[in-house]
Amino acid sequence: LNHAATLIAGVPRDQLLGRAVEELVIEADRARFGGFVDAVFAGGPVRADDVAVRRVGGDPVDVQIAGVVVRDPAGGAQHCVLAFVDVTARRLAESARRVAQEEVLAVVSHDLRGPINAIGLACEALASHLGPEAERGYVAAIERSAARCERLIRDLLGRAQIEHGALELQVATFDLRELVRQACADHAPAVAAAGSTLALALAPTPRMVIGDRDRLHQVVSNLIGNALIHARGAAIAVAVGGDAATVELIVSDAGPGIAPDDLPRVFEWFRQGRRRRGGTGLGLAIVKQIVDDHGGTIGVDTGPGGTT
């Protein structure tokens, strides 16, 4: 036990020697700490994990631990050496950075909404006075771009609201089939422009849900938009099914799929796969948070034939 360890624990060295090292770790982290030590003794590479250490007379200290096993001449595991690094300052810096980032996102997103709405209104006015089909196509392209900007702003604001715990659900009962039908219609121009197709399969009977209609529309829209980005012109399919107790929404595409290394982290904030083709890395994380807030579950399956 070195001097730095006594500073982290807040206890003199002679009061620590002979005690079980698990006693230094807060109870909530002890099982994870035990698993870490087991992994070190299993003979793998040096590993690292984060735990909180109880400090006598003060608040727990966030530390990062690394471990390496020391072997005897015969190759047997004799003991291990653990390094505890105080990462409190790093955590505080990360927290401050996140707060500043979310404040900037919220302000910028709010200020962008005005000009984007003005573009949309101008497009509506132009469309009513245009004759040739080509001119209408130009206006439609501007409208699609403005709609895309609006979705990005909504994602940025959603991220800020979720991060600050300000995401509120306006709950009502409605048929999910109607919401999905509308979301698919909203994406029809973008699907056609991308050279893709969108097939819709709806259950023959109503699929009633209790939830926030706008937020669930955002879920469906983000899933379709994500499929559209990564399908690369391949077919997209949307289905609503389930049974008497469960409502199920499936969005799939016949694109190249997700790389195996990216799959476990596909719903993380600002996460974009190696095959990224634009986007903010926010859409799927927001989808997961909204689904979680509704008490639902979400998952992903991918392969050479596409992603679901």
Question: Can you describe this structure?
Answer:
Helix content is 47%, strand content 20%. By secondary structure, it is of the alpha+beta class. It has a three-stranded antiparallel sheet, sandwiched between helices. Strand 9 (302-303) and strand 10 (306-307) form a beta hairpin. Helix 4 (88-127) packs antiparallel against helix 5. It is elongated. The mean pLDDT is 80.
Inertia-based shape: elongated
Order of helices and strands: HHHEEEHHEHEEHEEHEE
Number of helices: 8
Overall structural class, as computed from helix and strand content, comes to alpha+beta
Largest sheet: 3 strands, antiparallel
Task: Provide the residue-averaged pLDDT.
Answer: 80
Strand residue percentage: 15-25%
Helix content: 40-55%
Poorly predicted ranges: none
**What Rg is obtained from the alpha carbons, in whole angstroms?**
26 Å
Number of DSSP E strands: 10
Terminal Cα separation, in Å? 52 Å
